[in-house]
Write a structure and sequence with these properties.
Blueprint: E1 3-8, H1 14-25, E2 28-30, H2 32-39, H3 44-53, H4 60-63, H5 66-85, E3 88-91, H6 95-98, E4 105-111, H7 114-125, H8 129-151, E5 163-166, H9 172-187, H10 192-212, E6 223-226, E7 231-237, H11 240-254, E8 259-265
Length: about 270
């Protein structure tokens, strides 16, 4: 069981690394297009909203809007569903945060000197230098803001990764080879407890997505997570009717997984 998450600066070569590893190892490659395609099953609106919200820096109003919170929960659920299958490359979208503490997940952040990134962007995207600079600054800023809005953590903090890889210090081929070896070692170390942890996080994410995409439920304080023994639904509610609705739907979404509702009335 091995999972690779790649966060990358724009123009650093992270995408090429992820594609090469997925191709060589036969791993599933999960990026924006795959996630948006999966969202089709949730309805055309989610696919459409995803195109405008994905890696977009939300305004203060968007950040607390029902659709943005729902989209964020769907992303996390989708990423964890792929992680549960293992042998997958997860590109961006805070996968490193939701897989923190998972020993079978190798979480890397790919960087490069600004000048190298600009040169690469100019060639790859056929744009002039001024446009390349603008693209890099905007994309990196939006990625950081987007992930911070979802997880409350900085995308460019090296402490949030197992390794920070600078493509100016190694060739792409060497990075791919080294990363493949690490994944191979992880794949040989099967661990049922780790599988269970990922499965339970995925189950909690399913409950979270189901509640946060229900337009009739809007509880700004609602949190759903796995605490090591149960899926926990926590939040401040307004009345018994609201409590019953949330608990009934949460039980249905959780299925046979252990669930604990910790809902309180506003004092």
């Amino acid at each position: 069981m091995a999972i690779l998450t790649i966060s990358r600066e724009f123009g650093s070569g992270g995408r090429e690394i992820g594609q090469a590893i997925a191709r060589d190892l036969g791993y599933d490659y999960v990026d924006k297009s795959k996630i948006l395609n999966d969202l089709q099953s949730m309805g055309k609106n989610w696919e459409k909203w995803g195109e405008s919200m994905d890696e977009h820096c939300p305004t203060i109003w968007e950040k607390y809007d029902w659709s943005f919170r729902g989209f964020g929960a769907l992303i996390q659920s989708t990423l964890l569903n792929y992680a549960m299958k293992d042998r997958v490359v997860l590109m961006g979208r805070g996968a490193n945060f939701i897989l923190e503490g998972i020993s079978s997940a190798y979480r890397i952040h790919v960087v490069a000197p600004v000048a190298d990134c600009i040169a690469k962007i100019m060639v790859r995207d056929s744009v002039d230098r001024e446009t390349a600079i603008w693209l890099k600054e905007k994309t990196d800023r939006d990625r950081n803001c987007f992930t911070y809005s979802l997880y409350g953590k900085r995308w460019d903090n090296p402490e949030e990764y197992d390794d920070v890889i600078n493509t100016a210090e190694q060739s792409i081929d060497d990075i791919v080879a080294g990363t493949k070896e690490i994944l191979h070692q992880m794949d040989q170390q099967q661990n049922e407890s780790v599988r269970k942890e990922v499965k339970m996080r995925a189950a909690a994410a399913k409950v979270k997505a189901g509640l946060l995409t229900d337009q009739s439920i809007f509880i700004p304080t609602l949190e759903i997570f796995y605490d090591g023994s149960s899926i926990v639904v926590k939040g401040i509610i307004h009345n018994p009717k609201e409590q019953k609705k949330i608990e009934t739907k949460a039980v249905s979404l959780a299925g046979n997984y252990p669930l604990r509702c910790d809902l309180h009335y506003r004092g």
